[in-house]
Amino acid sequence: MTEPFDFERAFEALREATKPFAKAALFALRDDGFVTPFEQLVACILSIRTFDETMLPAAKKLFEVARTPQEILSLTISQIDALILTCTFHDQKAAQIREIARRVTEEFGGELPCDFETLTSLRGVGPKCANLVLGIACNQPRIGVDVHVHRVTNRWKRVSTKTPEQTLAALEKVLPEK
């Protein structure tokens, strides 16, 4: 008979093993004062298929010019694109960010709600980014599962799933809320 998995011990080992490394970019941005759901969502969009080392300066460059949906709307797609040029798929992301800013301004009075359904209703926002925004900016207990988390947790045999979405559901059942 195997012992139950000791999550707290595993988390402590992970915290210790990752101490020498820089914080993940979204947490680094939060610690630098970029704490709103909108800022975190824009940064998460920029991070898709882009290394943190590239995304972080690009997000800060954009936020030096525009941090709110209203400020983003004052820019053209070309201006946004020029600010995030180093990110992968920058031109598509520029259009996406401007469209999200428009919707947030028109539909939600300029404040992005801390709501999973609202976030995932925005074009290009999936469960991973929605959960990261809700966890980091809204202090909700959430798990951001991407293909990497899916693969690692399956290799560790903590879950046995076929998709990141299934992994998210399985992890929500076994991980302690903390």
Commentary on this structure:
By secondary structure, the protein is mainly α. It has 2 domains: 23-140, Hypothetical protein, domain 2 (Endonuclease III, domain 1), CATH 1.10.340; 143-178, no CATH class. 62% of the residues lie in helices and 0% in strands. It has helices at 7-18, 25-31, 37-47, 52-65, 69-73, 77-83, 90-108, 116-121, 127-136, 147-155, 164-174. Helix 2 packs parallel to helix 4 (52-65) and helix 10 packs across helix 11 (164-174). It is globular.
Characteristics:
2 domains, Endonuclease III, domain 1, 11 helices, mainly alpha, 178 residues
CATH fold naming of the largest domain: Endonuclease III, domain 1
> What is the approximate shape?
globular
In terms of DSSP E residues, the strand content is: under 5%
Which stretches are poorly predicted, pLDDT < 50 over at least 5 residues? none
Q: What helical percentage do the residues reach? A: 55-70%
Question: In CATH's first tier, which class of the largest domain applies?
Answer: Mainly Alpha
Distance N to C terminus: 27 Å
If you average the pLDDT, what whole number results?
94
One letter per element, helices H and strands E, the order comes to HHHHHHHHHHH
Could you give the count of β-strands?
A: 0
Task: Describe the sheet with the most strands.
Answer: none
Number of helices: 11
Helix vs. strand class: mainly alpha
